[in-house]
Each structure stands twice: as C-alpha cells, then as structure tokens.
Amino acid sequence: NNMQIDKIIITITGIAGIIFTYVFFFGKKEEAVLAKDSIDIIVEGGYNPAQIVLPLNKNTTLNFIRKDGNPCLEEVVIPEFKIKKYLPLNEKVSVVITPKFTGTFPFSCGMSMFHGKILVRE
To answer: Would the pTM of this model clear 0.70, i.e. be above it?
Structure first.
C-alpha cells in the first residue's frame, strides 16, 4: 500500500513539474512596449523590454544598455535593418531605426540565444 502512495506522490509531483515548466517557458506573454522617440532596452539575461512597438516611417532611437557580463550578449543583431552593434558593459549604445514596412522584425544576440522583437505598426 505504501508503494502505491509513493507512486501517486511521484506522479502528482511529475505532473506539477510539467505544468510549471510549461507555464514558465510558454505561458509568459511578453508585453509589447510602445516606443515614443526613444526607448531604453536593458540587456541582462535577455532584453527588457523584449518586444517593442515602433511607428512606421518615424525615427526611433533604441538605447541598448548591457548590464550582463555574459559574452553572448555583447553584440546585438537586427538583420532586417542591417544592424550589428557591439555592446560594451554598462554603456549606452544607441541605434536609430526608421521602419519603412509594418511587420515583426526579430533581433538577437550575436549567438542567437537571446531574442527580442520589433513590431512596426502604422
């Protein structure tokens, strides 16, 4: 009888672990942040904010401020805008973007392990 209780506890713990993992990795809905003329993006264990809304045909300055010593995060790449910038630790690196098309444009670190999105809307 004790064996069955152990199996039940292990099964419940396993299911709880699966649910926690799913919620933690897939359940987080990132809030998209509207950038006015400029926006600060903190680079620490990823990008914060990770989703930025930019207006169409308007200059917007993205200020990347890297606070994480992880060498993976020392470069930001925004392929659609042909941007590749080195991010020194604790320094603001500004990038001006003028989107000509609406859509979703990804950005990432140099090794493509950390990601963000630029959402261009009218």
So the answer is: yes
